[in-house]
Amino acid sequence: MDETQLRLDGNAAGGFLQEILAQDATSMRIRCHGCGSVAQVGAQPLYMYPGSPGAVLRCRACECILMVVVRGPGRLRIGLPGVTWLELPEPSDVR
Amino acid sequence: MAGTAVQRRLTWRLADVVGVVAETLRVRTLRLSVPGWPGHLAGQHVDVRLTAEDGYQAVRSYSIASAPDGAEGLELTVERLDDGEVSPYLVDELRVGDQLEMRGPIGGYFVWDAAMGGPLLLVGGGSGICPLMSMLRLRAARSPGVPARLLQSSRSLEDVIYRSELEGLAAGDPELQVIHTLTRRQPPGWAGRRRRIDREMLAEVAWPPRERPLVFVCGPTALVETVAGSLVELGHDPALVRTERFGPTGG
Amino acid sequence: MRFVSRGFRRRPPSDGDQGRVPPGQHVVRDFPVLSAGPTPRTPLSEWTFSIVGEVDAPEQWTWDEFSALPHEMITRDIHCVTTWSKLDTIWEGVSVDTLLAGVTTAADFIIAFSDGGYTTNLPLEDVTGGRAWVVYAYDGEALAPEHGGPARLLVPHLYFWKSAKWVRGLRLMTQDEPGFWEAYGYHMRGDPWQEQRYSGD
Q1: Closest alpha carbon to B100 in B45, B36, B46
Q2: I want to staple B246 with a disulfide (CB 3.0 to 4.6 A). Which of B208, B250, C70, C95 is the partner?
Q3: What's the CA gap between A54 and C198, in Å, rounded?
Q4: Contact B107 A11 (CB under 8 A)
């Protein structure tokens, strides 16, 4: 199987990211530290596999690592090595 | 507008399986009842979690196939993957009366809301049609005036999911075109396309870039990358092309 | 009381393989490809393998020099942290003992570094004494790029994230330092028989 077939995108990270953000993460915009391009999480390639404790979100334009997420026992560790900034819409109605 | 369906802390909840429909030999639709379902947007998905007696868990994502229609529930359409861990259970074992743990709706990027207008170009491969079907069903109910085209790639006619519903929608709607390409097997006399979606096919099927269609592409990664890349090469604005790649986690 | 999905069970290890399969693993016949990024494509003319860090003198081999080193065939079971195991995989390559033969060091740890930036750390004793190799062939053929070619580290007694694909060298260290996954919480050693998947296991 060609390895490109295995690559997902940020949509697949939507569930566990929303667990901690309390709002949608897939439309979150990120500016890439490597190349300066800005795109939504849902559009970016995500390297994640069933059963894998870790997932890597990369910049589609320059392939640098934007975000790393690792689930351990009772915790979720999030690294943001390639994020210059991330942008969320301000919740209009905080619940 | 999109507000409430994308803003909430996600919790796992139990859905009741109230119906199952065989779509093709490999594909089944599950009708789920979820008391207090907050509603969803076309294109969103849910995470489904299975738990074994020994505590072992497996989680997979599935697109919501039903239109946002105010129902206290939703439909998921699942394709059985040969070495899947979750999909064989959902397609072969789960039955009416069972419960399914899930959380959602999830997603704010790969979403079409009728207010976004069109023209609407939907490109799908295999089970990638599922979130696109939610969009088409929404359009049929609320905005049939929005011009829409679905270009769907399937292995054979027997593998086309929602085949008769798509025929029915297109037959009654001059603004909707459904174009199939069958990549492995074609019925005798098939006059339609018979190869994988490529740039040439998109140039024939898509509106010209100056019409600024909203594009949603969903399916296996290789198809999504080829289609999105080709559309941009043809001059479509990348900001108008939204993608969702399926992979082994869809099983 | 936690919800249980009626009739759902985890994949069994596989008939007859019970004693060879670590807890939580199941046997596969194919060879899944997992990566944290796109496949690097370093031309052999530019490829080198280095031993650096806490050594009296760093070592480096070009591809031709590396290919001329004593090598061997290795058959081992491998275990991925995503729960698949593959039995009797056949490799060909150079023992890390051979690579370290000319090296004097006080180091107790190494970090393997690869094209694309991936790193993974290991205790020195886990890569010596016939426990690790740098391999360039799998199943009788040149190692494919998606499986780590031209060469990858092979440390079959630990979870396969330690067998760094596209490896370009080893850095010897006196202190243990986390590599890529370890820094985010994967276990520093990764013994599948003790299910050492995360730090804190």
Answers
A1: B46
A2: B250
A3: 10
A4: yes
Chain B's closest residue to C32, CA to CA, is B248
Interface of B with C in 72-91 (CB under 8 A): 83, 85, 89
| Fold of the B114-250 domain | Rossmann fold (3.40.50)
Q: Which CATH number fits the domain that encloses residue C104?
A: 3.90.420.10
Average pLDDT of span B198-222: 97
**pLDDT band, residue A21 (cuts 50/70/90):** confident
Classify domain B3-106 at the CATH class level: mainly beta
Q: Which residues on C lie below 8 Å from B51 (Cβ)?
A: 2-5, 8
CA distance B151 to B123: 5
Are A53 and C35 within 8 A, CB to CB?
Answer: no
Which residues in chain B touch residue C4, judged by CB atoms under 8 angstroms apart? 51-53
Report the residue from C33, C38, C181 with minimal CB separation from A54.
C181
Give pTM, 2 decimals.
Answer: 0.92
Average pLDDT over residues B50-57: 94
Tell whether B8 is within 8 A of chain A (Cβ): yes
Q: Is the residue at C154 inside a domain?
A: yes
Q: How far apart, in whole angstroms, are the C-alpha atoms of residue C91 and residue C193?
A: 22
Q: For residue C71, what are the domain limits?
A: 46-194
Residue ranges of chain B assigned to CATH 3.40.50.80: 114-250
Q: Which residues pair with A69 in a beta bridge?
A: A55, A78
Task: Give the tens place of pLDDT for each residue, C139-180.
Answer: 999 999 999 999 999 999 999 999 999 999 999 999 999 999
The answer to whether residue C31 is domain-embedded is no
C103 found inside a domain: yes
Any domain includes C199: no
Mean pLDDT of B232-237: 97
Å between B14 CA and nearest CA of chain C: 9
